[in-house]
Specification:
alpha+beta
Length: about 240
């Protein structure tokens, strides 16, 4: 099995084109994580070759599409660590007949083809492609992440779940459900009475590990949360 080019940086991928990138995912051998260049952000991401597919999606998923999905997911998660999301949360209230509602708005994004994203060799096993993806943050981005370590930011965590039937889209749905759970858990600690509406910001504290468990994409999410507004029912 010949050596692939996944150790090259993102600029190299852009020059080589999607065909070579696909071959790299097909042929590259596994290497230890310590072989990667130092980076503040580095984690393993994965994509399936035979997930549940929606209408028009390729199946089985070819190597170049698996590569694209890994790039896109890593860029989205790292963006959630640097800039995070604004959230609006309405807790479920049976007595008042109010459904739970959780909305997220991204506050910044890394392009999936950003040259500061770099990839380690892929490992293909049991219909999955896995690869470490690193990102070199700018000094201003590092400072932003560091700012989340103090007040008014609070730590929380939650387990996110999304049905396997969602296919690849279930990865992000699981992350977003984990963010919802983490926000809800924090509110249980700081707000004794169920609020009408809560707004704030939430960022990933680390890359959430994602796995397929019992028909669900499941992830353990650790976050930092800034609550900016709590609307209580007695105000109305």
């Amino acid at each position: 099995m010949g050596r692939g080019v996944l150790g090259a940086n993102r600029r190299g991928f852009a020059l080589l084109g999607p065909l070579v990138l696909a071959l790299a995912f097909s042929c590259a051998p596994a290497e230890a994580q310590s072989d990667y260049a130092p980076s503040s952000f580095r984690a393993e991401f994965w994509a399936e070759s035979q997930p549940v597919s929606g209408s028009g999606d390729p199946w089985p998923v070819p190597p170049e599409e698996r590569a694209r999905r890994i790039q896109e997911e890593a860029a989205w998660v790292y963006s959630g660590m640097i800039w995070g999301f604004e959230f609006s949360y309405t807790p479920y209230d049976k007595v008042r007949r109010i459904d739970e509602r959780f909305e997220l708005t991204s506050l910044g994004s890394i392009r999936a083809d950003d040259e500061r994203l770099s990839f380690g060799p892929a490992k293909v096993k049991d219909e999955e492609t896995r690869a470490f993806v690193a990102y070199r943050p700018l000094p201003a981005e590092e400072a932003r992440v560091e700012s989340y370590s103090g007040e008014p930011w609070r730590s929380s965590q939650g387990i996110g779940r999304a049905d396997y039937i969602l296919g690849w889209k279930g990865h992000r749905a699981s992350y977003e459900d984990g963010l919802r759970e983490a926000v809800r858990e924090l509110l249980r600690l700081i707000e004794p009475n169920k609020p009408r509406l809560v707004r704030g910001r939430v960022v990933f504290e680390r890359v959430p590990p994602l796995a397929l468990d019992g028909g669900f994409y499941t992830c353990q999410v650790r976050v930092r949360v800034e609550v900016s507004e709590i609307q209580r029912y007695e105000v109305y």
